[in-house]
Amino acid sequence: MSDSSISIVPKLSVYPEREIKAKAILEWLVSLDIVSPFLTDCVLSSSHGYAIAEGAKNISEEPELLPYSLMNNGLEIITERRIFHTGQNGIDSLVCPVCSQDISNKDWEFLSEWDDNRSNNLTCPLCNVPTEIHQFKFTPEWGFSDLGFAFWNWGSLKTVLLKISGKSWAVTYPWFIHAFRFTPPESFLKSPKPQPSASPDDVSPKAPIHI
Ligand SMILES: [Zn+2]
Q: Which of 76, 109, 114, 168 could join 49 in a cystine, given CB atoms 3.0 to 4.6 angstroms apart?
């Protein structure tokens, strides 16, 4: 089985006091023994993560699918601006909210406006209207934020999240509902700790900042 991650990302380009929020959520997950409190090499990324812990079984309806036996089984917390894309799973369509055209087959240079932090918009290459990036319809969904939580190989994460959302997660963080699966491209798998690429054609994840 190849490694993959599912990320929870707010639909907000700039999250206020994101490091404080990240720390609070991590402490909550640790308090329930869902993840370990210690940073280790347990994620397929240039970063380190918090390994899955015993308590994860208590919030999963499919605990047999949890990745206890895998090397990459942790939670990676991202606190810098990042495009949370789907890796080799690609994209089916990207629809502009103004002209309703699918622009997924256009030059993806238009993403650099957001990626370079020049604005929180995308400018449609067809109608040339800039619109806040979360108004565009990505299928499958992509995330755009400076905060995110990537769970590596937690196959039943969506079920886990439903459990979590019944508790304090959804009450405190109602926008943490943006989940999607990232499967690293082959080049990523061959080199588990690659240098991030700045090429607009390769929107590989950038190195996260430890909190
Ligand atoms: Zn347009």
A: 76
Query: What residues pair up with 21 in beta bridges, in sequence order?
Result: none
Q: Length of the chain, please?
A: 211
Cα 123 to ligand 1 centre (Å): 8
Residue 122 pairs with which residues in a beta bridge? 131
CA 203 – ligand 1 centroid, Å: 22
Question: Can you tell me the mean pLDDT for 87-96?
Answer: 87
| pTM higher than the cut 0.85 | no
Looking up tokens 């605990």, which residue turns up? 63
Show the tokens assigned to 87.
């890796």
Q: How far is the CA of 97 from the centre of ligand 1 (A)?
A: 7
**pLDDT tens, residue by residue, 115-142:** 999 999 999 999 999 999 999 999 888 8
